[in-house]
UniProtKB/TrEMBL annotation:
<dbReference type="GO" id="GO:0016887">
    <property type="term" value="F:ATP hydrolysis activity"/>
</dbReference>
<dbReference type="Pfam" id="PF01656">
    <property type="entry name" value="CbiA"/>
</dbReference>
<dbReference type="GO" id="GO:0009898">
    <property type="term" value="C:cytoplasmic side of plasma membrane"/>
</dbReference>
<dbReference type="InterPro" id="IPR027417">
    <property type="entry name" value="P-loop_NTPase"/>
</dbReference>
<feature type="region of interest" description="Disordered">
    <location>
        <begin position="1"/>
        <end position="22"/>
    </location>
</feature>
<dbReference type="InterPro" id="IPR002586">
    <property type="entry name" value="CobQ/CobB/MinD/ParA_Nub-bd_dom"/>
</dbReference>
<feature type="domain" description="CobQ/CobB/MinD/ParA nucleotide binding">
    <location>
        <begin position="33"/>
        <end position="229"/>
    </location>
</feature>
<dbReference type="InterPro" id="IPR050625">
    <property type="entry name" value="ParA/MinD_ATPase"/>
</dbReference>
<protein>
    <recommendedName>
        <fullName>CobQ/CobB/MinD/ParA nucleotide binding domain-containing protein</fullName>
    </recommendedName>
</protein>
<dbReference type="GO" id="GO:0051782">
    <property type="term" value="P:negative regulation of cell division"/>
</dbReference>
<dbReference type="GO" id="GO:0005829">
    <property type="term" value="C:cytosol"/>
</dbReference>
<dbReference type="GO" id="GO:0005524">
    <property type="term" value="F:ATP binding"/>
</dbReference>
């Protein structure tokens, strides 16, 4: 990855010929790997909505589909399958070719998508996967990768190792939670630091399934976002090729805006103060939206 400012050596007094100090506005590159060992828990949904929510803050984002067996980001962002990774991998993988083959998402301003297509059944070796991720991070400041479930899939493994943050997605299904525990162990064995792993509980129904507090306790992780179950809204979003969270823009307690703030390490947008009756009415759902 190339940084525009040369890095001075540590433990040495500054000399007049040293480059100027990094400006306070310097923002390191960010790779969010969205992952979960169980199929269907909402990894692609979380990746698409996280990418769109980060872009809403004004930072351009590359949404990278690394689930080569079951790619979904093209559909989530309303882009036809052909093109993207399939074409890119037929050429040299460089910063320029990544920029060339990533396509702007029509319904999500600020998001470019590197799609994969289901028919290609691409598979990458470890070195190719590392090169792809490095080129993406060179081309974009912020990359959100939708990973496949198996940790030993080359693209997933490369993304998890390079990730600034790994968003581990579970739902309230016991299988999802138990396999997530095992996945955390495998990730630790593979040298992925645990403090980079952040929990997202998706498709949450208060009063059903495993409570969030029990999931947190079992996995030893605090949920950074709890996304309510809204089947119709998410089905419609996929149908329209536009992430669901965009329709929540400007609304208080938008969990995607909170998740974007978590990833960027910024303050989540403040929720407006509600009157007494509203607060009473919202008490049951507070657990769903009030975490961060
Ligand atoms: N918060 C939610 N509320 C309701 N439905 C949801 C929610 N999140 C995801 N879904 C739905 O659940 C299904 C699976 O979601 P998604 O494809 O994102 O999961 P996945 O983990 O990426 O699956 P795969 O393992 O196949 O890649 C989709 O139909 C999606 O619309
Ligand atoms: Mg998926």
């Amino acid at each position: 990855m190339s940084l525009s400012v040369p890095r001075p050596a540590f433990g040495r007094a500054a000399s007049p010929s040293d480059p100027p100090p990094v400006a306070p506005s310097f923002r390191p590159r960010l790779l969010c790997a969205v992952w979960g060992p169980k199929g269907g828990v909402g990894k692609s949904t979380v990746a698409a909505n996280l990418a769109a929510a980060i872009a809403r803050t004004g930072r351009p984002v590359l949404a990278l589909d690394l689930d080569l067996r079951a790619p979904a980001l093209g559909v989530h962002f309303g882009l036809a399958s052909p093109g993207g990774l399939a074409t890119l991998l037929g050429e040299a993988v460089t910063t320029d070719t990544v920029r060339h083959h990533a396509r702007p998402a029509p319904g999500a301003p600020g998001v470019h998508v590197l799609t994969a297509s289901p028919s290609d059944l691409l598979s990458l070796g470890a070195e190719e996967a590392d090169r792809l991720i490095a080129a993406c991070l060179d081309a974009w400041d912020v990359v959100v990768a939708d990973c496949a479930s198996p940790i030993d899939e080359a693209t997933t493994f490369a993304a998890l190792r390079a990730a600034t943050l790994v968003y581990l997605v579970v739902d309230q299904d016991r299988v999802a939670v138990e396999t997530a525990w095992e996945a955390l162990r495998l990730a630790a064995d593979a040298g992925i630091p645990r403090d980079r792993v952040r929990l997202v509980v998706n498709r949450y129904l208060p009063g059903y399934g495993i409570p969030v507090s029990a999931i947190e306790q079992y996995l030893g992780l605090r949920a950074r976002a709890v996304i309510p179950a809204q089947p119709l809204a998410y089905l419609r979003a996929v149908q329209e090729g536009k992430p669901c969270g965009l329709s929540l823009n400007g609304k208080p307690d938008n969990p995607w805006a909170r998740l974007a703030a978590d990833a960027l390490g910024t303050e989540a947008p403040a929720a407006p103060r509600h009157g007494f009756l509203t607060r009473l009415f919202r008490r049951r759902t507070r657990e769903v939206v009030g975490r961060g």
